[in-house]
Amino acid sequence: MLNLERLRTLDALARHGSVSGAADGLHVTTSAVSQQMAKLEREVGQPLLAKNGRGVRLTDAGRLLADHAARIISQVEQAQADVEAQRGCAVGELRIGTFPTAMRGLLPQTLTALRTGHPELRVRVREQEPEESMAAVVRGDLDMALAIDWHNKRMPVPAELTRTHLLDDSVDIAVPAGHRLADRTTISLAEFADDEWITWNEGQFCHEWLVFTLRGTGIEPRIAHIAEEHHTQLAFVAAGLGVCVAPKLGRGLVPPGVRLLPVCDTVRRHVYAVWRADADRRPSIRAAVDALQRTSAELQRA
Prior knowledge:
Blueprint: H1 4-16, H2 19-26, H3 30-44, E1 49-52, E2 55-58, H4 60-87, E3 92-98, H5 100-105, H6 107-117, E4 121-127, H7 130-139, E5 144-150, E6 161-176, E7 196-199, H8 205-216, E8 222-226, H9 230-238, E9 244-247, E10 258-262, E11 268-276, H10 283-301
Parallel strand pairs: 3-4, 3-5, 7-8
Antiparallel strand pairs: 1-2, 5-11, 6-9, 6-10, 6-11
């Protein structure tokens, strides 16, 4: 009999392409991955891995079994979803990936509601960028992800995933208190042609959105500083080092010396949840979606 956990290890190796990647995805050590693969090779009586430089690659037998493993794991997940749906209770473990502002502004209230309403459900949350967390849901490393896109730039959602809208997050531009536009009630992005920006890392979806949007107004953006966290960006604005985008979700206290200016062009982010379509019947998924929607509605009314 083939061992399911060893098949999961093989599946992770096939998806991640390396022992270290599989170990990270499974939250185990590289030694544990190697041990599981050695046991699986003894079970099937054939080598499944071959050396490839400093790494490894799947043999023909390894690729063949990995294809079967992916289908077996999908069937097991479907069976688990069906059994959970039959029971009708949100139980077990639910793994959620979320971007930083939702981690801070949306998840605490949601997790409190889930703990109260579903005490047998254990929720684990991982902070990461939306592209990474959606890929993890597709791989099966996460059960659900919170993601964002923008009113003028949508993020592709893999066909295997179901999505539901949670809220629209309004966005201001944060400027130093002494900025030439600081006393305005509304502004247009086109008025920042001469300003330096504090923004996210190049390659991140929000960074690409800012560059795309500014170029759409005829501005070639001047990126002065890169900072991951919104609070860090706002600290740089307070020091007079540039301007930044300031979403409302998870914003918290604005430091002294910063003015928030609404954008008359109605800049906003769409926040949504995604999960695997084959897990749609899981009560834990439904419970999490319901809690997220209730929290989102409360935030929109605030």
